[in-house]
Structure formats: C-alpha cells, structure tokens
Amino acid sequence: GPLLLEVWLPQDESVKRSSWIVFMPGLGGSQDHFRWLGRELSFNGWPVVVLEHPGSGVKAVQELLEGKNAVPGAEVLPARLADLKAVINFRENGGFNLKDEKLVLMGHSLGALTSFLASGVRPEDGLAERCSKALDDLSLTNLSQLLQCQLLDVELENQDEISDLKAIIAINSFGSLLWPNDRDAEIPVPVFLIGGTLDLITPPIQEQLGLLLATNPHPLSRTLLVEGASHFSPVRVEGQDKRERGDDLFQLDDAFVGVEPLAVQSLFGKEIMRYLESLESGTNVGSSVHEQKGNLRLHLLDRQAVKDLLYDQ
Fold this sequence. Notes:
Elements: E1 5-8, E2 19-24, H1 35-43, E3 48-51, H2 58-65, H3 77-92, E4 102-108, H4 110-118, H5 127-136, H6 144-150, E5 165-171, E6 191-196, H7 205-214, E7 222-227, H8 254-257, H9 261-281, E8 288-293, E9 296-301, H10 303-312
Parallel strand pairs: 2-3, 2-4, 4-5, 5-6, 6-7
Antiparallel strand pairs: 1-3, 7-9, 8-9
Helix pairs in contact: 3-4, 5-6, 7-10
C-alpha cells in the first residue's frame, strides 16, 4: 500500500548542508511524536523525511488495545527495511527535489535498530545461546531483550549498500544481545547514540554504552547519556506543554516519561544539531563532556570514556 511520508524542507536557502535525514519512529510511534524534531532540524537547514510505518505504527498499537491484532514485534523489521529502501529509491529517482548528497539515518528505539540493520550489519553468531541465558534471568529493567530474541525467528535479507550513508543517530537504541562484544557491529559510519538513565526498556548502561563499544571505533562516534531522561522523553504528545492529557496512546505518567520531557527534547535537539555540525566540519564534539542543564545532567562520552565508565561499573 501507499507509504505516508512527512517532509520538512528548509526555507532558508542560504544555509547549506551536505546531508538529508530520514527519521523512523519506534514501535507504535507516529510522525506526530517527532514533528518537533523535524521542524527544528529543517529550520536549521537539514531536510528531514519522517516515515509512518504501516503495521508497526500508532494504528497497530491502537488495534492491539482494541483486541483486533496481536502485539507487533521484530517480525515487522523486514517491512520497515523495505519502507526505508523505498524512500531512498524515491529520492535517487528524483523525488523530494533534494540536492544534498549524504544520508543520515535517525530513529527512535525500533527505528534506531532499523537504521543499524539498514547499514548491512547482522546479529552476531550465537544469538540463540545468548537469548537462552538472558531469558532465563529476564529483568523488567531491559524489556528490549525480548524483542532482540524475536529476531531468531525473523529472516532478514541482505541489504544493498547505502553508498551515500554518512552517519546514524540512534535515540534509545538497543542491541546488546545482537552485538555483545567490541566491534561485533561492523557499522561503516560514525554513530551517535542517545539514552536516558530512567529508561527501563533500553537501559543505557547495557544498551547505548555497550553498543558504542560494539561498533567500529570511528573518531566521531559518541554516546549522549542524560540523567533524568527516559525511553519516552523524546516523544512529544498533545498537551505536554500544558501538563495536560490528550488522547495520544503515549500519554504516560512521570514515572515513565521522566523529568521534564520538553526540557529533554530541547536538549536532545540541540545536541543532535551540534553533532550534525561536527559531521559537516569533520571535527569531534569533545572526548568527554559533563554538563548540568537545569534539572538535567548530560554526559557526552567517546569510546575511551565509555570503556572507563563500564570498567568502573
């Protein structure tokens, strides 16, 4: 069927960027949830295409709650990869009227995993054994392990190389069971992994920090860890700016959303743009940065800083 896209084009033609961005929401996510980010990035010169994945978006979760469908899981990844491929092919055939040459893949949660798989990496051998051990002692503080182990029953086709792929920006990403060791994930481009300390679905110590070490040691790769942010902090919903509750499925209480979600979104937006600027210039954004931002504290870590932190743990 048709693939619904939301396209944010920069209005200021004097701002020249070398990349365009494809953003993929997570499981049950929608374009509405990340409109704030598309708007902000396009205002600062980056064209952004936001996908709405049929079968694993907000409509699929609504049907689950109504008892019409089973909960979607890792089986939706081949369709999501096909969605992304269709968008890339559309652009290569003249769609969007974009002159920008390089592609930055960006996603939240399952959208982040889609980005990794689209780069050509596949789960490291031995996933069944790792899952057997993990599920024997399953913790409710890392629910992403259930979805990772579902990949045992999913056939993933080899992906065509994305020749103009410049970087991957992954918000609340995961993959500790898929790529458990240093350099298991041979992702050919720098990655920027973003997570929060209150995330019980993709906890940062196991997922974002470990995943940075599992990727290639690119000098521009970084992890951003925000104290007080959760898995749902980047999701903007109706009434959030007024502390009201709308009809959105993602209207969750503070125990799930974390501290000041709008402040987290503002911080994420600024740090993502700072990272994109570093890609433009080819210079890093600091080896290790620790800053207090209101009620939030951020830690920007390179590979060595992550190693030191995990070793101290």
